[in-house]
């Protein structure tokens, strides 16, 4: 039997506010355990919460960027449950009246086709603490307790791991672009719960879903979907009864494990948060926030293809990061070579950033560095190969390319007389290879050029080398 997969994501986004959602404690990542706390975020008796206005602003801003309608009247609610890392034994969240509803994200596949994924709701809430499991026992760090979150709940519109990843990538790009979160998955700023079920192909009736908690990487999301779909199908075909449950992802063994039966809404005994007033959001405030939304990644993607004549693949990579897109445009303004800029960013610079696990603004180079480097290459002053060496040094020490080229004597040799001597030397020293080339082994031409470049220690102008090499071989 064939099966359809049904996927929905609940994405938890840690907001980039300086203080927590209901108190003045810092949201800075790290710090000694239990030092970013106060009576409010520790839930001590008599401590009253005060809602951070910036959290509401970021909620509205996210909703507008995701095509949602903004609920002008909304409130905070108590969600009652006991976990060791929940200091109050309840979470302050939003139940019936969330800040945003009915949005969407359009994802695009490699073949150019698109699909719209619905967003059911966005609500504000506070985060719990963090459990640390050690050999000595389980410890709790409450530094994260009270950090503001947006929970973005999709509709069950995705049907494959590919679609889920495209959705999450685009969501991450939008949220980073509008500045509400850094979305650093390795620090827990973006994590998601996966809801997945399978059903007979074409059936209208949904299958029994499982929720997999706290996936914090695209790879984990992909592997969890693949494993869980396979597990559910095998269970159905073996006659096993599936039940709604919450599972966790075992990263080491690449499998999901059952945690508990899935709670229903009434298990949480939601009721209005009596210590916080109802929110009344004005049209004027919504419009003020709307004006602060910059050009979104998918809008930038379309513009980059048209304005800079970039291939779709290049445009997609460049616009996936707001910082990278800005760096790209500033560099193009300097050197006027959009394709070269894209190639350097997607190649050597991206490799360096991945190796160091940093963003482009955390490197030691600026658009001026890269723009000047590309101009040196395009002006024939250094070769592309030398350019790679210069870039490597720029990334390490932040020196301008002109300085590195001058200090190391890397200016490209365009003296045709000197290059011609080297070309003749290579041909005269390799008569057998010349004979083979004349007999049809034309791929040896690149070898001849390479020998000249080696002889010149990479400084010979490769265009001149190729031109003279061709002329000299034709004379023989």
TrEMBL record:
It catalyses: L-glutamyl-tRNA(Gln) + L-glutamine + ATP + H2O = L-glutaminyl-tRNA(Gln) + L-glutamate + ADP + phosphate + H(+); L-aspartyl-tRNA(Asn) + L-glutamine + ATP + H2O = L-asparaginyl-tRNA(Asn) + L-glutamate + ADP + phosphate + 2 H(+). Its EC number is 6.3.5.-. This is Aspartyl/glutamyl-tRNA(Asn/Gln) amidotransferase subunit B. One of its GO terms (biological process) is glutaminyl-tRNAGln biosynthesis via transamidation. It comes from Clostridium tepidiprofundi DSM 19306. Residues 326-473 form the Asn/Gln amidotransferase domain. Allows the formation of correctly charged Asn-tRNA(Asn) or Gln-tRNA(Gln) through the transamidation of misacylated Asp-tRNA(Asn) or Glu-tRNA(Gln) in organisms which lack either or both of asparaginyl-tRNA or glutaminyl-tRNA synthetases. The reaction takes place in the presence of glutamine and ATP through an activated phospho-Asp-tRNA(Asn) or phospho-Glu-tRNA(Gln). PANTHER family: GLUTAMYL-TRNA GLN AMIDOTRANSFERASE SUBUNIT B MITOCHONDRIAL AND PROKARYOTIC PET112-RELATED, GLUTAMYL-TRNA(GLN) AMIDOTRANSFERASE SUBUNIT B, MITOCHONDRIAL. Heterotrimer of A, B and C subunits. InterPro entries: Asn/Gln-tRNA_amidoTrfase_suB/E (IPR017959), Asn/Gln-tRNA_Trfase_suB/E_cat (IPR006075), Asn/Gln_amidotransferase (IPR018027), Asn/Gln_tRNA_amidoTrase-B-like (IPR003789), GatB (IPR004413), GatB_C_1 (IPR042114), GatB_Yqey_C_2 (IPR023168), Gln-tRNA_amidoTrfase_suB_CS (IPR017958). It holds the Pfam family GatB_N. It is an enzyme of class 6 (ligase). HAMAP family: GatB. Keywords: ATP-binding, Ligase, Nucleotide-binding, Protein biosynthesis, Transferase. Coiled coil: none annotated. Belongs to the GatB/GatE family. GatB subfamily. Gene3D superfamilies: 1.10.10.410, GatB domain, N-terminal subdomain.
């Amino acid at each position: 039997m064939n099966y359809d997969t049904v996927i929905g994501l609940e994405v938890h986004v840690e907001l980039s506010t300086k203080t927590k959602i209901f108190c003045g404690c810092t949201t800075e990542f790290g710090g000694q355990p239990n030092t970013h706390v106060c009576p409010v975020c520790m839930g001590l008796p008599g401590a009253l919460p005060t809602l951070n206005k910036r959290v509401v602003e970021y909620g509205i801003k996210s909703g507008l960027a995701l095509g949602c309608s903004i609920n002008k009247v909304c409130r905070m609610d108590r969600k009652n449950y006991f976990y060791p890392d929940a200091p109050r034994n309840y979470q302050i969240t939003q139940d019936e009246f969330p800040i945003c509803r009915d949005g969407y994200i359009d994802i695009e596949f490699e073949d150019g086709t698109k699909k719209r994924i619905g967003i059911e709701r966005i609500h504000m809430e506070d985060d719990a603490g963090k459990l640390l499991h050690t050999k000595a026992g389980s410890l709790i760090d409450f530094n994260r307790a009270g950090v503001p979150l947006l929970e973005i709940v999709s509709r069950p519109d995705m049907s494959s791991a590919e679609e889920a990843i495209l959705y999450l990538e685009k969501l991450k790009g939008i949220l980073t672009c509008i500045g509400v979160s850094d979305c650093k998955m390795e620090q827990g700023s973006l994590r998601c719960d996966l809801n997945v079920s399978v059903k007979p192909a074409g059936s209208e009736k949904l299958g029994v879903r499982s929720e997999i908690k706290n996936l914090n990487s695209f790879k984990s999301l992909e592997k969890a979907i693949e494993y869980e779909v396979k597990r559910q199908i095998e269970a159905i075909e073996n006659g096993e009864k599936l039940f709604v449950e919450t599972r966790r992802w075992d990263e080491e063994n690449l499998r999901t494990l059952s945690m508990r039966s899935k709670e229903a809404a009434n298990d949480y005994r939601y009721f209005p948060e009596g210590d916080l007033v109802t929110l009344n959001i004005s049209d004027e405030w919504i419009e003020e926030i709307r004006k602060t939304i910059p050009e979104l990644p998918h809008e930038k993607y379309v513009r980059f293809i048209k304005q800079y004549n970039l291939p779709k693949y290049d445009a997609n990579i460049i616009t996936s990061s707001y910082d990278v897109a800005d760096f790209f445009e500033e560099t193009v303004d300097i050197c006027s070579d959009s394709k070269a800029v894209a190639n350097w960013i997607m190649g050597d610079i991206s490799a360096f950033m991945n190796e160091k696990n940093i963003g482009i603004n955390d490197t030691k180079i600026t658009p001026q560095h890269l723009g000047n480097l590309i101009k040196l290459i395009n002006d024939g002053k250094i070769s592309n190969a030398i350019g790679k060496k210069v870039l490597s040094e720029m990334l390490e020490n932040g020196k301008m390319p002109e300085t590195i080229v001058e200090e190391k004597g890397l200016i490209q040799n365009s003296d045709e007389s000197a290059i011609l001597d080297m070309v003749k030397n290579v041909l005269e020293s390799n008569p057998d290879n010349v004979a083979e080339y004349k007999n049809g082994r034309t791929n040896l031409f690149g070898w001849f050029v390479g020998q000249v470049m080696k002889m010149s220690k990479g400084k010979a102008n490769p265009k001149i080398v190729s031109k003279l090499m061709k002329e000299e071989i034709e004379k023989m």
